[in-house]
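Predict structure. Chain length: 378.
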Amino acid sequence: MVAAASVVVAVGAATGMMSAVGDGGGSDRARPGVTASPRLEPLPAVPSPSPSATKSPAPQAGPSEVEKGKAEARPEPSASRTEKKRHTTPVPARLYRHPDSQVLDWVRANPDDPRRAVIESRIADRPAAVWFADHSPGSITSRVRAVASGGAAQGRTPVLVPYAIPDRDCGGHSQGGAPDLGAYDAWIDRFAAGLGTGEVIVILEPDSIAQSACLSAGQRADRFASLARAGRVLKEANPRARVYFDAGHSGWNTPAKQAGWLRQAGAASAVSSDGIFSNVSNFHGTADEIAYDRAVLDALGGPPGLGAVIDTSRNGAGAPADGEWCDPAGRKVGRAPTLSTGEAGIDGYLWVKLPGESDGCKGTPGTFTPSYAYDLAR
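Prediction complete.
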């Protein structure tokens, strides 16, 4: 899609490494979406297997991205941002791999499949996000706690994605969420209660800011107030939580426009925010996202500790030139997840969408498709 967006197609489950959409009983799995401007990223080295952990509630399928914004010019990053001294709370260098996911289920069930070794080493063994994409207040605290405690037990940092904002996806493929903002605020309170006291990263509501043009001015102001509150609640519940706000991606809104909305949503306040995230479920090259995120952070202002995290799960070949967003051919996995990027202002490369979980063209939306995963990984 030359008109750019993040594509998150929620199908009653969540996205990332393990999403958590569902039926109220809850489970947690993960996956994500796309846009244009190819750039080749090196294929990550084959990792050593991640240790398994006690099983947490099984995840469900999550979002995939759908056309949302119009591609706009990307300004060059301003030098001032990269020169600022950053003061951030140290985070363990290792990210958490949840022991349950659709890709792990497939690997375990298909020991003799010739694609298994590649998929296992280049996708299944990577740490990825856990999505919570359903409004199930009765179970959300225990499900979040299971993931947070699993990471703490291994001394690793889990990545959690709350994805239940009302009017999610403007009624598109990933529509859903809480019935209203009051219910959402209560859901966030319960989400926060499960965060524990260890290091966690929270990717707060993909597309909730970048895609907010579909709302009236009043609705947008109400949503932004609720997001700012969510950031405060999450950080008050666990001061070691790092909360990142939606910056869309480099092919969507201009940095100035996105920064203005982010500021209204509390992303420039240290009591709510640790910075921004970009490229969730999309395909834009890492270099493009770094430049864009730095420009957004410069325009945003706020304390010097604010940084950015980038979804690199499927951006190894950049975004397709034709703007295709649904399982486009020729894409590759991107840089391996890490919290040590070597780039000023860039706090991490994360796999927010789990590669191989379909956007809906190579398989049912949100389901693991081995042929697609193999093409991405090889």
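Summary: Strands lie at 130-132, 159-162, 200-204, 241-246, 275-278, 307-311, 346-350.
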